Amino acid sequence: MITKIYFPRSVIPISMVFSKFVNFIISIAIAVVVIIIAGHHVEPVAFLMLPMAMLILLVFCLGMALILSAANVYMRDVQYLVSVPTMVWIWLTPIMYVRNYVDNELISTLLSLEDRQFYSGFAEVMKSALIKDAPF
After folding, report:
1. Quick check: is 1 in a domain?
2. How far is residue 17's CA from residue 93's CA, in Å, rounded to a whole number?
3. What angle do CA 111, 130, 55 make, to 5 degrees?
4. H/E element, 104
5. 13 — phi, psi (to 5°)?
6. What is the pLDDT of residue 20?
7. Does 42 reside within a domain?
8. Residue 96 lies in a domain
9. Closest by Cα among 67, 35, 47, 20 to 128
10. What residues contact 110, with CB distance under 8 A and at least 6 apart?
């Protein structure tokens, strides 16, 4: 169907990113409710950083989706090659653990390399916006 009629092909990755972004907004709303119920204080001024950080993440994801979907047209294995580094990237980002508590030298070296990445700073902004006394 895409080859028979004029259809802007960039709509497909953009729609995927926006559908995942809606899920992300719902998840953040649930997380805020759970954080408040758990008794943590949400700083209103820091909470104002949340929409800006989410907008930056949306633009980053749109750019990556368009680049990778264009690369996927020429190299069909891009979707498989992206999944492994993405999983490693997620596990190296200190979201569910505190970076200062890591004692292993190899993992500390990997974390120091990961600090130069975009996602690490974004994760810290999200943590500081949602939890006032987030231990970094």
Report:
1. no
2. 21
3. 80
4. none
5. -65, -35
6. 94
7. yes
8. yes
9. 47
10. 92
- How many domains does the structure of the chain reveal? 1
Q: Of the candidates 134, 131, 132, 123, which has an alpha carbon nearest to the alpha carbon of residue 54?
A: 123
Token pair of 128 as six digits: 């500081």
**pLDDT tens-digit map of 77-114:** 888 888 888 887 777 776 666 666 666 666 666 666 65
- Residue 91: give the domain boundaries: 11-130
Q: Closest by alpha carbon to 120, among 53, 55, 70, 33? A: 53
Q: Is residue 124 part of a domain?
A: yes
Taken as a whole, the chain contains a residue count of 136
SS3 of the chain: helix, strand, coil, percent, to 5: 70, 0, 30
Question: Using CA atoms, how far apart are residues 88 and 107, in angstroms rounded to an integer?
Answer: 12
pLDDT number for residue 63? 94
Q: Which two tokens stand for residue 23?
A: 């899920």
What pLDDT is recorded for position 136? Answer: 47
Angle, helices 105-114 vs 78-92, to 10°: value is: 110
Residue 82: which residues within 8 A CB-CB, separation 6 or more?
Answer: 68
Which segments of the chain have a pLDDT < 50? 136
